[in-house]
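[INFO] parsing input record for Glycosyltransferase family 2 protein
[DEBUG] input buffer:
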Amino acid sequence: MRTVAVVVLNWNGLADTLALLPTLERCRLPEGWQLSILVVDNGSTDGSVEKIRAGFPAVQVLALGENRRFAGGNNAGLARALEQGADAVMLLNNDTEADPALLERLLLALEQDPGAGAAAPLIYFAPPSDRIWYAGGHCVVALGLAAHRGLRTRDLGQYRAVEETGYLTGCCLLARREAWEKVGPLDERYHIYAEDADWSLRARAAGYRLLFVPTARLWHRVSAKTGAASPWKIYQRLRANLLLFSRHARGLARITWLPAFAAQQAVLAGWLAAQGRWAAAAAVPKALVDAMVGKPAAVVRL
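[DEBUG] output buffer:
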């Protein structure tokens, strides 16, 4: 019997995590697979550890006692799952709701494509919704571009076939054991954001195909903690992407990525300003300047 481990990161998100866990327990699995759920608690102060253990005794809870952020917390869960012999490990946001076919479809897609190392589902905005949040991703280092495909469009049946994609979102990323071991864990040098794109680029460089599986579905309550397009989120995402492209640019891309990226950010700042969102617009040049002078992203408060 093979095991798929689902690592759910929790930080003061008890209500979200309690809502997610029953949907995971209802997930179907291919024949010969069993499910292990591991909640990693990043030092919550809302009683999460005790209440999750009491409400879901079959779920493992790894209490870290401190906030190791997205990469550190997930890496702790990943290491525990691999130590326990998991054959595949999924990283899953706690503010999500799983369709019963989620795990079954992702695992079958990987089984049917030996060259694929990891896969992600079709992800919608919070239920009830057919509005798409993720339908595969574009990640073109030479253009300084990392973006979700299909963002905010309605699902009209345009995505139905399993296909290779540029990057997988860390909201829901399932990878084979061998891929985790060869590519390694998430890079904890990222303060927040871009850890998934970084891992995806490393997986592609290691020779793995990344799959988008639209028959696997998930709903995501996006930005419940940071707010949609908040100044802090815009700032941190920009800083993370600067780090991402500077690390992965090779050859001619070392020349092209920065001007292309700067042009995209100028358009973003202008669009935000045109909407009267001045604080969000101001976060763009601040992030660029802070990166130039080497100010750590972790100390910034907006």
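[INFO] The radius of gyration is 19 Å.
[INFO] shutting down worker
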